[in-house]
């Protein structure tokens, strides 16, 4: 009987301590993405098909598509995210592109892998990838700690004539 009581107490202690231990030992999804996100120097290169209005982007080693997009005149490192319904800019990237938001502007609730956060809705005048340009793109600005890299979502992609993934190549056509 004494062994059963001791085993029960041990299980209760483990049940109480395990979540705290596991939380302190594991990384958040964004920390994991940040470690897997290539540096600007390692971003996948784009290849333009001259005169065709097509751009091909090759995936990085982690399978994601990274590129530098010209957003309102500033080169911003982004990850193409077909699962994101809107372009999402880190606040520091938005500031570099001349987009100013204030604390009160963060009034749009967004559901992310990390839970709910608040974003500031904006409209980007121009988003370009090589010779493909899209105007008046809906976007949001999010606090830097919510994203490891800015996202090029479907508010940009759906304005293209076509975007397609084939193997390790993403093609934009306008």
Question: In whole angstroms, how far apart are the ends?
Answer: 75 Å
Q: What order do the SSEs take from the amino end to the carboxyl end, as H and E? A: HHEEEEEHEEEEHEE
Number of strands: 11
CATH topology of the largest domain: Cathepsin D, subunit A, domain 1
Number of separate structural domains: 2
Average residue-wise pLDDT? 79
**CATH class identity of the largest domain:** Mainly Beta
Fold and architecture overview:
With 174 residues, the chain is α+β, with helices and mostly antiparallel strands. It folds into two domains: 26 residues; 137 residues, Cathepsin D, subunit A, domain 1 (Beta Barrel), CATH 2.40.70.10. It is built from four helices and eleven strands, in the order ααβββββαββββαββ. It is globular, with a radius of gyration of 21 Å. It starts with a helix and ends with a strand. The N terminus is likely disordered.
């Amino acid at each position: 009987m004494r062994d059963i009581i001791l085993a029960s107490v041990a299980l209760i202690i483990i049940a109480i301590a395990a979540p705290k231990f596991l939380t302190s030992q594991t990384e958040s999804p964004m920390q994991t993405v940040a470690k897997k996100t290539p540096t600007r120097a390692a971003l996948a290169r784009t290849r333009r098909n001259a005169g065709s209005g097509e751009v091909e982007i090759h995936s990085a080693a982690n399978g994601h598509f990274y590129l530098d997009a010209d957003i309102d005149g500033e080169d911003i490192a982004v990850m193409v995210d077909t699962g994101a319904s809107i372009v999402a800019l880190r606040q520091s990237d938005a500031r570099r592109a001349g987009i100013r938001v204030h604390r009160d502007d963060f009034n749009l609730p967004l559901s992310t892998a990390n839970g709910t956060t608040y974003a500031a809705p904006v409209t980007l005048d121009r988003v370009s990838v090589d010779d493909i340009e899209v105007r008046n793109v809906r976007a949001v600005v999010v606090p830097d700690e919510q994203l490891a890299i800015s996202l090029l979502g479907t508010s940009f992609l759906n304005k293209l004539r076509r975007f397609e993934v084939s193997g390790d190549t993403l093609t934009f056509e306008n």
